Amino acid sequence: MNLSKVLSIVFFLVAIGLGYFLWKGVDDVVEKEKRIALIESAIIEKLQMLRDAQLAYEASNGKYADNWDSLKNFIQEGEIWLVERLETTKLLDYGKEETTVTFDTLGSVSVIDSLFNERKYPDFDLERLAVVPGSGGKMFEFFADRIERNSYEVNVFEIRDPSPINPERRLNNNEKALRVGSRTDASTEGNWK
Q1: What pLDDT, in 10s, does the model give residues 169-188?
Q2: How far is residue 159's CA from residue 178's CA, in Å, rounded to a whole number?
Q3: CA–CA separation, 1 and 104 (whole Å)
Q4: Are 14 and 21 in contact (CB under 8 A)?
Q5: What is the C-alpha to C-alpha distance for residues 102 and 25, in angstroms, rounded to an integer?
Q6: Which of 48, 149, 161, 174 has the maximal Cβ count within 10 Å?
């Protein structure tokens, strides 16, 4: 066998090896991005569930829960009142209308059955609701307060991921961490939209 054939075989094997390492590197990046997207999707679902619970808590208590224990207790023990609103409009003699609004309480339903029923969330686990998916057991950070906006006091809340898995969300002291609500604005939206 001459030297050129040996070198051709060696170069061919080196090319196959380099090709494999290049493919493996790209495949690892793609798999990591898929894993991050899957975990962030689970985090977003939990943040949406926690937002629903916070809105019900605020409707019942006049403020948002500032910690997990208060919100958890509300989900377990709380009730949502079912209220019917009726409007009647009466035409007055001089052409104006008079509208009367009445409210009738029809009963109540438990928070856990209303918001987190088995049909909507078949695998719901209250004990794991505040645990951030993919974090190794870390809990979401809870914040609630009242702030002044346009000379009115409004309730605000924020629930956020304390240690994002996505490196882009960890920049600037977790500034872009997944969260719902806002500490400075009367928003109940999430920052993933």
Answers
A1: 777 777 788 899 888 888 88
A2: 9
A3: 98
A4: no
A5: 66
A6: 161
- The strand order across the sheet containing 179-181 reads 141-149, 152-160, 179-181
What DSSP character marks residue 80?
Answer: E
Cα 160 → chain centroid: 8
For 183, the token pair is 């500490």
Rg (CA), the chain: 27
> Are 109 and 116 contacting, i.e. CB atoms less than 8 angstroms apart?
no
Backbone angles phi, psi at 152, to 5 degrees: -120, 145
Tokens of 97: 């209308």
The first and second tokens of residue 124, run together, are: 């719901």
What is the rounded CA–CA span in Å between residue 84 and residue 98?
A: 20
**Given this model, what pLDDT does residue 93 score?**
79
Burial class of residue 131, CB neighbours in 10 A (0-12, 13-18, 19+): middle
Return the pLDDT at 163. Answer: 84
Task: Tell me the three state secondary structure of residue 64.
Answer: coil
Give 99-119 pLDDT, tens digit per residue: 888 888 887 788 888 888 888
